């Protein structure tokens, strides 16, 4: 019997499922499954059907040891999704216990950034590391912090919110209700805001002057920068300066061996990494200088969300605390 | 046989030693022992004599289970004191292994702020907590971060440097070589610098205009504030604003149940705590608001340094990893 794990990624519109072995092979992956059920019962019903199909598709001789779910606004300790602005389920949904009851299998729930950290630990560049950080650069900025070989969840299960550390107390308004949070500067949305600020501040020509804020994407900014657009290049420099500074604070807190950058914005490669590394090193305490690796996630072009959720189960299965936690 | 621990606090001029039981009773404490030996061998020789006297003083029926040492620039993993600016021993001194060889007992070495965190965990307000932070406000600002019940030492043994997170990239020069570090604003030295800045910026009368920078102490500033001195009151507000903001970043990183403030500056009590709590709560993400306790250390008026170093031994003895670590 080959041991496998079901990895699940609950997104705003669709949910992805995959069966993953210990080596990170995706043995089977579901076709499109909608997340947009008004009631959670409908979602669970559809979920069950998709899982049954997946399990049948890989044939017998497999033992599923657990179900790992990555979802927005997830609380690891409680196994709940809490007040998610981008899902249809209001209030608090005890998704882990509902899934556990249905499948009689250990089920863990975490947010996307923590899933990415589990993925990096089990399948990616953080194999063998006990202290590292994964920063996810998508619509927002997420973070998964690993200290002493364990994810840092904090007292209430919601630690690792580096995206909401402070850049400027009078700065940009953030969806969380504060002002000046890191993710309002450093994220796909943040760099768009920066482009608009720079278009306002300067008079140089830029193709991006023809694009509305809604239409502007991080990819467009990347392409423009590669084509020599001064505003786009300055926007990456601006983003990297703030990211580098705040990553030096991350190091002061948790002293990681490496920081991995994951997600859409990292596709800009050197445009982002070169200036970030410069500002990062300039702002490190001398005792840390040159000692903390800053690198792209090794899961950047894989089914990272499914792999990460599955990795969470493997990690706690091997730590021997899977049944206590779930 | 009653189990006891030797707790040691290595300071710039003197070293303090005490025998401590599991309940935090200081069974015996050494008289003055100098740290100012030019060579470590002389220090170790004197140390041995002091320990012998201490052990004799409490009579038989005691079993010493280990030696915990708090020292500046200590590396927990390596048991070394590394390039200490305030001690006479240059380079790297393997103090833990020297002491261990001499006494044939498990010996651990950590820095003052981490010792304070162990003390809070075993003897203070953090009993039963698995996620908390201790901030020490002395000449500098130290921090001990506990996540998942373990001190966060990071990859190289030197995590928890919240005092060197960034307030202002163009800000005050710091002893670490950077500019704008938190401890240049928030510490006994930091508030003196703030008083001088405010004396320069404003024209109001202040008794502190008669005091030189060298002579000015945090106690004087506290007394002046209590007496209604506007500059002193403004200096506490300035300090608290920066501390509150940066503590909200600490929460975003590690999501503690409580943050304990320890050390000289906390003697100012409400002068410091009231405005710090205000700015702290204003800057927390909504999900953390009202959920993180900010309180004075319960070890503030005790032999905290000796208790903390001893607590480190009790903690790892009870975790069962004392002999692996030492």
The CATH superfamily of the largest domain in chain A turns out to be: ATPase, nucleotide binding domain
By secondary-structure content and strand pairing, the structural class of chain A works out as alpha/beta
Query: Overall pLDDT of chain A, averaged?
Result: 96
Shape of chain A: globular
- How many domains make up the coordinates of chain A? 2
| Largest interface, counted by CB within 8 Å of the partner chain's CB | A-B, 43 and 43 residues
Helix content of chain A: 25-40%
Number of helices of chain A: 9
Rg of chain A over CA atoms, rounded to whole Å, is 20 Å
| CATH architectural type of the largest domain in chain A | 2-Layer Sandwich
């Amino acid at each position: 019997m080959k041991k496998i794990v079901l990895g699940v990624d609950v997104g705003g519109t669709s949910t992805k499922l995959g069966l993953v072995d210990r080596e990170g092979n995706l043995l089977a992956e579901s076709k499109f499954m909608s997340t947009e059920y008004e009631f959670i019962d409908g979602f669970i019903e559809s979920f069950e059907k998709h899982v049954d199909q997946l399990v049948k598709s890989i044939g017998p001789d497999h033992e599923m040891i657990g179900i790992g779910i990555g979802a927005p606004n997830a609380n690891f300790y409680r196994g709940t999704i809490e007040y998610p602005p981008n899902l249809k389920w209001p209030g608090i949904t005890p998704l882990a216990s509902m899934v556990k009851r249905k499948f009689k299998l250990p089920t863990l729930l975490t947010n996307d950034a923590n899933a990415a950290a589990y993925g990096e630990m089990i399948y990616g560049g953080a194999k063998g590391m006990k202290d590292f950080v994964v920063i996810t650069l998508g619509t927002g900025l997420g973070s998964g912090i690993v200290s002493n070989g364990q994810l840092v969840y904090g007292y209430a299960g919601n630690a690792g919110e580096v995206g909401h550390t402070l850049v400027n107390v009078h700065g940009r308004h953030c969806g969380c209700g504060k002002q000046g949070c890191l993710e309002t500067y450093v994220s796909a949305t943040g760099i768009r805001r920066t482009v608009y600020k720079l278009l306002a501040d300067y008079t140089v020509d830029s193709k991006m002057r023809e694009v509305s804020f809604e239409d502007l994407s991080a990819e467009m900014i990347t392409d423009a920068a590669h084509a020599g657009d001064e505003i786009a290049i300055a926007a990456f420099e601006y983003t990297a300066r703030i990211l580098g500074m705040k990553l030096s604070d991350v190091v002061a807190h948790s002293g990681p061996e490496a920081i991995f950058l994951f997600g859409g914005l990292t596709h800009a490669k050197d445009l982002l990494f070169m200036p970030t590394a410069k500002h990062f090193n300039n702002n490190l305490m001398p005792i840390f200088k040159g000692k903390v690796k800053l690198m792209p996630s090794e899961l950047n072009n894989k089914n990272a969300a499914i792999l990460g959720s599955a990795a969470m189960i493997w990690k706690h299965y091997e730590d021997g605390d899977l049944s206590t936690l779930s």
